Amino acid sequence: MSDYSFFGAVEKSFDKAAQFTTWDPGILEQIKQCNAVYRMHFPVKIGDKIEVIKAYRVQHSHHKLPCKGGIRFALSVNLDEVMALAALMTYKCAIVNVPFAGAKGGITIDPKKYTPYELEKITRRYTSELIKKNFIGPGIDVPAPDYGTGEREMAWIVDTYASMRPGEIDALGCVTGKPVTQGGVRGRREATGLGVFYGLREVLSMKDVMDKLGLPVGVEGKRVVVQGLGNVGYHTAKFFQEHGAKVVGLSEYEGAIYNMDGLDIEKVVEHRKTKGSILNFPGSTNFAKNTDALEMECDILIPAALENVVNGQNAPNVKAKIIGEAANGPLTPEADEIFAKRGILVVPDMYLNAGGVTVSYFEWLKNLSHVRYGRMEKRFTENLNTHILGQIESLTGKKVNGKDKELILHGPEEVDLVRSGLEETMITATREIMDVWKKNPQIPDMRTAAYVVAINKVGTSYAELGIFP
Ligand SMILES: NC(=O)c1ccc[n+]([C@@H]2O[C@H](COP(=O)([O-])OP(=O)(O)OC[C@H]3O[C@@H](n4cnc5c(N)ncnc54)[C@H](O)[C@@H]3O)[C@@H](O)[C@H]2O)c1
């Protein structure tokens, strides 16, 4: 499918961008390599058998600490994939100014083949392996959810960590993406999808960019196709629908569906729950292969499942004018070249799906500072805020009601704070990358511009810190 492995593709993109920077070749090589690779095998009792589980944790960089990156549960997990995903995390964090270095983990299992009890045993044993080798901790390396994992697994991880490190006051900050009741933050669940939406909305608002693509400005009325209805795909599709776009195509494992008038995401999810498949959704046309979605008639294609799905073979058939990489590494380098030639805009994974890590940063800060975000305790603020409300009303001569009154009296909700921080982050990152691209017309695509931004930020860290010893 591609001449490059996943890590090879990341290295190729890095090299392509490095020529637009002025860093010493030694620094560039150091930024590119993975600093620490932990490949492990451990036994777990499944029924009356002992199963040997293969797993990984890769810390791509230590230019900032802790390292940060999700944990993937899938049969396809391998060292090359985990290295590539760890490297992308370094660049992602740099672009959105989240002070972490990149890491990633994975367990080579099909989670659907295990009971929740067995998955818990595997997750806890994996966590204990990370603890033994100092590959996890609030100031060392902080995992998060990724493909095949979610809040449940993160709760098992934090519980295992806290049990094995009794008395560690910051234990909650050893992992993010936890349930809200276990130190998680409101807004983390939908953060990656919302970040994808904010990033693409910003691109869609740029008149010069849209003129080049021959598309009208704005989200309203855009036809969107999403591959993968998991955490990232579902929320991305929902936010597009809520803001006036038409989600015309969706795909899951079992196939794809299309309706040029738009599909109702919630109803499709409900249909899949009851019928076991997205196929045969009323009013839509079925496609037997899930990859058919990639070639559907639309304005924006959003791959939100796994890597290497758009490649040299199917890229010539893609009809979208914009590809929003919600998944990590969905395009091969061959596809990238085809899209650059065809004038199709690829909005790259390495910042577009940074919503998860951005909100994870808020969660980590909340855990370390041992506070709650948002609404202040009524008893602390009521008198002062009631006074402020009175002042505003007498100055403006108008009564303040509804949401505004709530905001003045009690401050914003945690989820509103988180979302506004995320929105600002994604808008700033999009503009920064576009500015670099516009200032240097020799940069061939937005991905390369994003890498230039990332390399310059990580390079600056090395230059300022010096090389030890
Ligand atoms: N979860 C996060 O916060 C996060 C953050 C950044 C990036 N990502 C990336 O987003 C991607 C998806 O992650 P997720 O967390 O949504 O995973 P998930 O497990 O919640 O969902 C993935 C979905 O894709 C479906 N799928 C798998 N192969 C498919 C195919 N060939 N065609 C159509 N559907 C397919 C699966 O059935 C599943 O429903 C991954 O590349 C991940 O690395 C996730």
From TrEMBL:
Family from the record: Belongs to the Glu/Leu/Phe/Val dehydrogenases family.
Native organism taxonomy: Bacteria, Pseudomonadati, Bacteroidota, Chitinophagia, Chitinophagales
Domain of life: Bacteria
Protein name (database record): Glutamate dehydrogenase
CDD domains registered for this protein in UniProt: NAD_bind_1_Glu_DH
One biological process term in Gene Ontology: L-glutamate catabolic process
Record-listed substrate binding positions: 68, 92, 360
Site residues by UniProt (Important for catalysis): 146
UniProt keyword annotations, A-Z: NAD, Nucleotide-binding, Oxidoreductase
Chain positions recorded as NAD(+) binding sites: 192, 231
Single annotated GO MF: glutamate dehydrogenase (NAD+) activity
Endoplasmic reticulum in keyword set: no
Domain spans labelled Glutamate/phenylalanine/leucine/valine/L-tryptophan dehydrogenase C-terminal: 185-466
Listed transmembrane segments: none
